[in-house]
Amino acid sequence: MLEDKAREDKQNRLKERVVNSKALVDNREKLEETRKQKQDDFKNNLREQTAEYKNKLARSYQRVYNKPLMFETSKRV
Questions:
Q1: Looking at the whole model, is its pTM more than 0.70?
Q2: How far is CA 27 from the centre of its chain?
Q3: Which of 10, 31, 51, 68 could join 72 in a cystine, given CB atoms 3.0 to 4.6 angstroms apart?
Q4: H or E element: which one contains 75?
Q5: What's the number of domains the chain is made of?
Q6: Structural domain boundaries enclosing 66
Q7: DSSP state, 64?
Q8: DSSP secondary structure, 15-63, as one string
Q9: What is the rounded distance in angstroms from the CA atom of residue 12 to the CA atom of residue 31?
Q10: Quick one: pLDDT at residue 77?
Q11: Whether the Cβ atoms of residue 24 and residue 18 lie closer than 8 Å to each other
């Protein structure tokens, strides 16, 4: 009787350890959330870089457009 009780207690303790084991926990949701967060961060970063590039390109075009032409700057004799 005592052996059965000890065996049952041991079995319950092991069952708790197995159920709460990190190796058996389903962490797919956490991994999926982390993956989505990384994708969102990457997309936002890419959008910001693209906007910066377009602004820089527009400023460059504007400088070239506003620059006087060579024949306009040459001295007339």
A1: no
A2: 18
A3: 68
A4: none
A5: 1
A6: 31-77
A7: H
A8: HHHHHT-TTTS--HHHHHHHHHHHHHHHHHHHHHHHHHHHHHHHHHHHH
A9: 30
A10: 52
A11: yes
Element of type H or E holding 12:
helix 2-19
C-alpha count within 13 angstroms, C-beta hemisphere, residue 11: 6
pLDDT tens for 9-55 read 999 998 888 887 777 777 888 899 999 999 999 999 999 999 999 99
The pLDDT of residue 57 is 97
User: Does any domain span residue 4?
Assistant: no
d(CA 77, CA 66): 25
The four Cα atoms 42, 47, 48, 53 give a dihedral, to 10 degrees, of 120
Is residue 70 included in any domain, yes or no? yes
Q: State the amino acid at position 2 in one-letter form.
A: L
